[in-house]
Design goal:
Blueprint: H1 2-42, H2 44-59, H3 65-76, H4 92-107, H5 115-133, H6 137-150, H7 157-172, H8 176-189, H9 194-218, H10 223-232, H11 236-244, H12 251-263, H13 267-279, H14 284-301, H15 305-317, H16 321-333, H17 339-345, H18 354-386, H19 393-401, E1 431-435, E2 440-443, E3 445-448, E4 452-457, E5 460-465, E6 469-474, E7 483-487, E8 492-495, E9 498-500, E10 505-508, E11 511-517, E12 521-526
Antiparallel strand pairs: 1-2, 1-6, 3-4, 3-12, 4-5, 6-9, 7-8, 7-12, 9-10, 10-11
Helix pairs in contact: 1-4, 2-3, 2-9, 3-16, 5-6, 5-7, 6-7, 7-8, 7-9, 8-9, 10-11, 11-12, 12-13, 13-14, 13-18, 14-15, 14-16, 15-16
Keywords: Coiled coil
Coiled coil: 353-387
Protein name: Tetratricopeptide repeat protein
Amino acid sequence: MRKFLFFLIFILLFGFFGLASQSIVGVKLQELRFGILRDQLMNYELSSQTLRERLKQMFLSKDDYLQEVKVNILESGIMNSETKGLELEMSWRDKFGLAVINAVRALNFKPFLELEEQQKTIIRLQFAFYMERTRKFSISSKKYEELEEILEGSVADEMAFTLLHNGYCLVMMGERERAYVKLRRAIDIFPGTHYAENAELLISFLQEGDKRKMDLKTSNKKPEELAYSLFQAGDYEETLKTLETLPKLTGDQSYIKARSMEELGKTSNAVKEYIQLVKQKDNKEVAIRANRRLLLIGNFYQENKSLVEFSKGEAEKLGDDKAAKQIEDGKSLVLKPIIVEKILKAETGKTGTEEAKELAEIKENLKDSLEESKAETKKLLTVVQEENIPILKEEIQFEEKKEDKSAEVVKVEKRKIPNIAIVRPEEKGKLQVRLTDGRVIACDSLHTNGKIVSLKLGDFSLELPIDLIGSVLTTVQKGDTGLLVEEKGGKSTVFDKLERNKEGEWFSSKKLETKIQDSELKEVKVN
């Protein structure tokens, strides 16, 4: 009996350790896959590069429209991808393995491995960054504060990103003292990283701005000079107050007034000023700058096709049609935000739980933001009408249909995407790159290093993880040659269409024998 008992214990222990080792390997593989996909989606280094460019644009080159377009393109590629691969599907065996791992970590006084919590953190970060991009800084900062509490004690990228971007949001809200605290924490906890470099850059800009303001207070500058200096220092409220003291504004002063209103979120008022500046004939340079702002607003910040059409016509009259073309090219590379649909479609789950409350709050914030945006769009359309700018028929219909559709995204059903893409006139002779989530981007060429894809169009490029690419088509007429695919070894092949599978192989249904690995692909362009 005793021998049988020992034998049974041995069998149970052997089974336990066998199951435990198999489960641990499964969890570790899931953790590795999750980590790789998370890094691709979050793209933290690119986010730092983008913030750096945004800061330079804000403080050093306010009227560099090309730089502004590049920043918008870069920002649209950050945290803006489908997260199918990040959905955790943990079996009972995986949960058992996770329990064993956490038991060992507890004995070694290490923090628990929490894959599900990491997944929730990603959604929170995506939402906070979307609010930051759309200039809802108070909502964004609040979510970053919550993330800071959740990540307290962590030295992961998520914590560094949270501190840096919360600091930026606080600066934009005028809360500089709180911003300094966040930025200095980022420098102290993450020294020598790109996060610390950006925090130091932002602090240096702020200190320079504060020094300028102190100098301005003690100077005896005329209101005309003071307004310009305040504008350059980024103090838009004071700029407007100073301009109000002037009896009559010059073209340049009116432009500074409009720019200040735009930076403070008073877009419709700014547009009204810009239109007046475009219509005046005394100062061509100011008219060009004002018209470029209208193009940027109509294409990026407050989409309005009527305004864009008006500005394109004015650009032609002013001899600035190249700028109009560049801005439109840039617009076509900007990815639409996928986080909006994702959050609105998410199930709230069990009511009463903390998670359900948080998701409900995020949904409410997002709906409020969409309503606010809709109201601003209507306001802008009213301004455009008042200025006697022709309203496009499709825009009138769009406004009529827009009523009571704030939550319509929830009803969107996934449907099979046809192989034939719709080609707009301006996209003829270009590549059409279809992403795995169905979004389509028109570009001149595709370049890759095996991990990141760069889609080039004119003066701009959009960088994306290679795993997001589903297929590449050409918009040239049938009968013409299609895609010219160049490999790193120098070999070139012509394909009618390229598809990419999960194994990282590029192929054509008509040439299945020819498959190109991610690591071998160099460039794709129209032949």
